[in-house]
């Protein structure tokens, strides 16, 4: 168990909050510059997220500021810590990597803040860093152990072969993956993701997370990936055919469906955010005692609407599954009731009036604006935070790597 932080450290770290608000992004850019001088550490990161225009420096700046601001109330950060630990396990972050980050962070603080970063300040931040690092290391060790000891589980990178490629929409393809060794695979929790080490010609190693879009069968996984404009990884993956071998880490992630839910379940997604929702829906339909399920999805039009027929077939098998599809801008030849249910976006009023806000568990996945809007609407409608579960796309607010 990590030793409690000293009162002096707590006070000194909180005193740096104004400096972090003013110079935090500069500190983070300097920290990454220092870490990336080591190729072994650099290759742990998703490079596209860390440039001057990348999203990860901003996310990390916010995370460091949140840590400093809540240093005397770390319980508020528990969900973020679990998310970080799960992501680190996917990326294969190990205890020996943490000292490099500590050295880079403290060096960056000194370089950016200059004389304001006194020896006392640096010592306090060193203590605060290792306090959090030891919590993460302990949690990650437990996750690695669970993965290794679970039937079909593994640590490190395992080779999987693309067995089948399915064009799901104009922008989304599904890839069915089976292990090259022919052995069983770990049963994942619906909603979790796989982390991939992609070796793209002419590029440094690329790490990406993709949600598993199928229920567990113990033999294979399916991911469904949107080809992003200028997306290095998604573009390369979309160009691959059956037979390509990929390096894959074991399933991870803190966003997943509860075991045999006892309350109604609302699965709410936007765009390619449907991928974990389809895994959840397949799982719920397979459960004999599955209660009411509301599957609600929003996309642009028929061409971008992935897995629609599959979802409708699942709903036909389920005892109490209601599917509602929104097309924001239906094509001229689309027909309501055939290609989609409602034209336009998912409104607050519709969501609150057409789903059981008083009792349901909500699982939400999609782009940040979609997620932010949905969570806000449900919260204002009185849905308690313990019944709102969500996953967003893009880098999380991680403190070590993304």
Strand order, sheet with most strands: 4-3-6-1-2-5
Instruction: Flag low-confidence runs.
Output: 395-402
Rounded mean pLDDT is 92
Query: Which fold name corresponds to the CATH topology of the largest domain?
Result: Globin-like
Helix and strand run:
HHHHHHHEEEEEHEEHEHEEHEHE
What is the CATH class designation of the largest domain? Answer: Mainly Alpha
Question: Would you write up a description of this structure?
Answer:
It is a single chain. With 402 residues, this protein is an alpha/beta fold. It has three domains: 7-149, Globin-like, CATH 1.10.490.10; 158-248, Elongation Factor Tu (Ef-tu), domain 3 (Beta Barrel); 265-392, Nucleotide-binding domain of ferredoxin-NADP reductase (FNR) module (Rossmann fold). It has helices spanning 7-15, 17-35, 39-42, 56-69, 78-91, 98-113, 119-149, 232-238, 274-286, 308-317, 348-354, 368-380, and strands at residues 158-167, 172-179, 193-198, 206-211, 221-226, 245-248, 265-270, 293-299, 321-327, 342-343, 361-366, 388-392. Strands 4-3-6-1-2-5 form a six-stranded antiparallel beta sheet, with helices on one face. Strands 10-9-8-7-11-12 form a six-stranded parallel beta sheet, sandwiched between helices. α2 packs across α6 (98-113). The model is unreliable at 395-402 (pLDDT under 50).
């Amino acid at each position: 168990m990590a030793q409690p932080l000293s009162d002096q450290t707590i006070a000194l770290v909180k005193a740096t909050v104004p400096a972090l608000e003013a110079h935090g992004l500069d500190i983070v850019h300097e920290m990454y510059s220092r870490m990336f001088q080591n190729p072994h550490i650099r290759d742990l990161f998703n490079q596209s997220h860390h440039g001057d225009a990348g999203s990860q420096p901003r996310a990390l700046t916010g995370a460091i500021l949140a840590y400093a601001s809540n240093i005397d109330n770390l319980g508020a950060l528990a969900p973020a810590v679990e998310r970080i630990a799960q992501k680190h396990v996917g990326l294969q972050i190990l205890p020996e990597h943490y000292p490099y980050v500590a050295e880079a962070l403290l060096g960056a603080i000194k370089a950016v803040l200059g004389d304001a970063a006194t020896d006392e300040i640096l010592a306090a931040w060193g203590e605060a860093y290792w306090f959090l690092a030891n919590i993460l290391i302990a949690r990650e060790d437990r996750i690695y152990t669970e993965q290794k000891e679970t039937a079909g589980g593994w640590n490190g990178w395992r080779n999987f072969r693309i067995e089948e490629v399915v064009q799901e929409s104009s922008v989304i393809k599904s890839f069915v993956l089976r292990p090259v060794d022919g052995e069983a695979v770990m049963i994942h929790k619906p909603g979790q993701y796989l982390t991939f080490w992609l070796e793209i010609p002419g590029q440094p190693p690329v790490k990406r997370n993709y949600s598993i879009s199928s229920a567990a069968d113990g033999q294979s996984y399916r991911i469904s990936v949107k080809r992003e404009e200028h997306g290095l990884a998604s573009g390369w993956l979309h160009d691959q055919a059956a037979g390509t071998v990929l390096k894959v880490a074991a399933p991870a992630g803190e966003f997943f469906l509860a075991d045999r839910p006892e309350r109604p379940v609302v699965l709410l997604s936007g765009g390619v955010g449907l991928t974990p929702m389809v895994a959840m829906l397949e799982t719920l339909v397979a459960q004999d005692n599955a209660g009411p399920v509301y599957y609600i999805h929003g996309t642009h039009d028929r061409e971008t609407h992935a897995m629609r027929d599959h979802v409708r077939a699942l709903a036909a098998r389920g005892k109490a599954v209601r599917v509602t599809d929104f097309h924001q801008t239906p094509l001229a030849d689309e027909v309501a009731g055939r290609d989609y249910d409602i034209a336009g976006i998912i409104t607050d009023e519709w969501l609150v009036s057409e789903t059981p806000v008083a009792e349901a568990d909500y699982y939400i996945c999609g782009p940040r604006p979609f997620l932010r809007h949905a969570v806000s609407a449900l919260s204002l409608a009185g849905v308690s935070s313990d019944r709102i579960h969500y996953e967003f796309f893009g880098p999380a607010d991680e403190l070590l790597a993304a």
